[in-house]
Amino acid sequence: TSSGVFLLQMGWGDLGALGEPSKETPNLDQMAAEGMLFLDFYTASPLCSPSRAALLTGRLPVRNGFYTTNGHARNAYTPQDIVGGIPDSELLLPELLKKAGYTNKIIGKWHLGHRPQFHPLRHGFDEWFGSPNCHFGPYDSSERPNIPVYRDWDMAGRYYEDFKIDLKTGEANLTQLYLQEALDFISKQQASQQPFFLYWAIDATHAPVYASKQFLGTSQRGLYGDAVREIDDSVGKILKHLQQLGISENTFVFFTSDNGAALISAPKQGGSNGPFLCGKQTTFEGGMREPAIAWWPGHIPAGGVSHQLGSVMDLFSTSLSLAGLQPPSDRQIDGIDLLPVILQGKLIDRPIFYYRGNELMAVRAGLYKAHYWTWSNSWEEHSKVMAQGPG
C-alpha cells in the first residue's frame, strides 16, 4: 500500500464539508464524502516546524527536539537564520518505510533545518522539490539572500528571482509546479510497480498568500480563497490521477494541516477556524484542531465521520502499520495506529497534549479540556509577544 499525506496551513473552518458557507472546496468535500472526515483531529504544535517534526517522527516536539527553552511557552521554528534542525537521533517515517521498499518524495516546504545535515535526502527521502523554508521575502541579497528552492541536492533557484511571486497581485505558479511534480512522481512509481510515500507540503495559504493566474479573483474569500480553490483543485487532480492509473485502492491518502489558520494574517491572508477560539500560535482549539480526511477507496467506507481524538503523529504509526512495519521500540512514540478507527469505526481512548515550546498548556481527555496556562497577561503583554513574529 502506498501512502500520500497532504499538509498545508488551513483552518478547520476552510472546508465546505465543515461548514464554510461559500463551499469553494468541492474536491475536498467529495474526498470527505468518499472517505472519513475527522472532526476532532489535532496538530502537535500551533506552528509549522514542530508540527512537521511530530508528523514525521510520531513524537511530541518536546521529545523530538523541536521546542524552545529560551522563553516561557514560546513556539520553536526554523527560519532561514536559525542553524538548527531535526536531530540525527530521530527516526523519520521515510527512513523506516525504506525498509519495506518504499520510494519517498517530499514536495514543498521541509522546514526542519536548512544546513546539509538536515537535508530531507539525509533523512529518508529519495526526492525533493521545494524549499527548506516558507516563501518569505523578497530580500536584499547583500544582507539576506532570497530563500532557495531545491531539486534533490541541487538548488533550482530562489523565491522571487527564479520562482516568481508577485506580492501586489498574489500571482505565482508554484502550486501548479508542485501539482505536476506529484502527478509525475505517482506515474513513475506506478510504472515501476513501486510502493511510495508522497509528502505534499505546499504553502500557498501561508502569508504572503499566492495563487496561479487562472485562480486569481475566482473566490468569494479574496486571495486566500483563491489559494484554497487552487489547492482543492490540485487535490482533486491527484486523487483522479490515482484512480485513472488504477492504484487508488492501493493508496492511502490523508489530508490535514500543520496548524490552525493564522488570524494575524486575516482577513485577506488568513483562513477560518470555524467555531473555534483563536488560531495559529495558540493552544486554543483554533490553533490546533485541524481539518482531516482519510481516503482509501474500497477500504474506507464512504461517508464516515469520526469523533476519534486524532493527531498528526498518528500518521506516522498508521503509515508504518499499512507498510507492515512496527514502530521503533527504543523510544517513546506518541502516535497511535488509526487503522481500527478508519476501517472498523472503533474509538480509541487517548489524550491530546497541547504544548507551546516546552510548556504543557492544556490536555484534552474525552469531551473535556483542561487549560493549565493561557494568554492571561494584559493585552499589552499579549501584543508584545505576538509582535515578536511567528516564533
TrEMBL record:
Chain coiled-coil ranges: none
Known EC number: 3.1.6.4
Record field: catalytic activity: Hydrolysis of the 6-sulfate groups of the N-acetyl-D-galactosamine 6-sulfate units of chondroitin sulfate and of the D-galactose 6-sulfate units of keratan sulfate
Name of the protein described by the UniProt record: N-acetylgalactosamine-6-sulfatase
Chain ranges of the Sulfatase N-terminal domain: 10-324
The keyword Transit peptide is annotated on this UniProt entry: no
MF GO annotations: arylsulfatase activity; metal ion binding; N-acetylgalactosamine-6-sulfatase activity
Keyword terms of this UniProt record: Calcium, Disulfide bond, Glycoprotein, Hydrolase, Lysosome, Metal-binding, Signal
Pfam family, any one: Sulfatase_C
Organism expressing this protein natively: Quiscalus mexicanus
Family stated for the protein in its record: Belongs to the sulfatase family.
Main location: other
Quaternary data: Homodimer.
Location of the protein in the cell: Lysosome
Essential cofactor(s): Ca(2+)
GO cellular-component term (any): lysosome
Taxon lineage: Eukaryota, Metazoa, Chordata, Craniata, Vertebrata
